[in-house]
Amino acid sequence: RGEYRAAAAAYEALLADWPEADGHARAAVLQNASIAVTYLGDYERALSWYLQSLDAARVISSVDLEARALQGLGNVHLLLGQPQLAIEHLREALRVLERLGDRMPQVHARNALGDALLAAGDREAALREQRAALRLLGDGGAREARGRVLVSLGATEAAFGRQQQAAVLFSAALSPELPMAAGVALRARYGRAQAWARLGRVPEARAELDALVSTAQAEFLPDHEALALGLRAQLRRDVGDRQGALSDSAAALAALDRLTVGTTNQDNRVTLARRTRELLELRVDLLADNGETLAALQALDLHGARSAWTSGVAFERARPDSAREEPLAQRRYRPD
Q: Does the reported pTM lie above 0.90?
């Protein structure tokens, strides 16, 4: 139902009393808890719980739970802006799933791999994986999975510059006939708003974003809130509403701050910091246009970004290279 805060609290209480010896059930609960905290933006706790579930799955030789944990790790690394790490985990998950022969888990893993490949800049490979996921689905059932694949295909079409096709795919995914998780629906609505904005359908994009911001704030989803506010700030700037753009960009940065507060791993902090660049650039440009150059510099200082801005350390550093990372389930993936 989208009540991720309540779910996370319930799972945390459950895990506190759960016997370590009950490996299979505990691993499954850890994975469900990880999904809840991922939507809340608590990525490092999600990584930690997925890793615990991966360890448990391997101890009890549960290949199904192992594949789910690997896919979960891939999804979280993708959200952290680390697509190469995501690709590594998702490909390993696919290898496990192909041995099992289960069709539906392969659909989800291939689709997620397509998302990671797109984030890494390989649009053609992303499209191949997403189309393969759609073929695996066939013509029947699995409506929730079909919606997820359509959302991913929409994002890839948008990356190719085919905004009209992207908007059609996002709208198809949001059809009442295709029920989906609340977080996936928010992603579809954001994608459609972005496509509409690029097509010049500004009033429709603005209405979608207004609704998105309200939903994300009501459900305490800072990642979705930051995305929607950032795009709305750009729309406001483009129509000459500088004050509104400043307000939205400040609120978006505050939402991103809530993601960063609980992040202690340095690589994760760098990738989250990189996500603030576009918002900071927008905010600095707006302030400078108004003759508020000092306020623009203070805006950078407020987010500890001035030194990073001039040195390029936080914003220009290459994405973490999976070849340099330690093996799966080692300390590199855990909070420092």
A: no
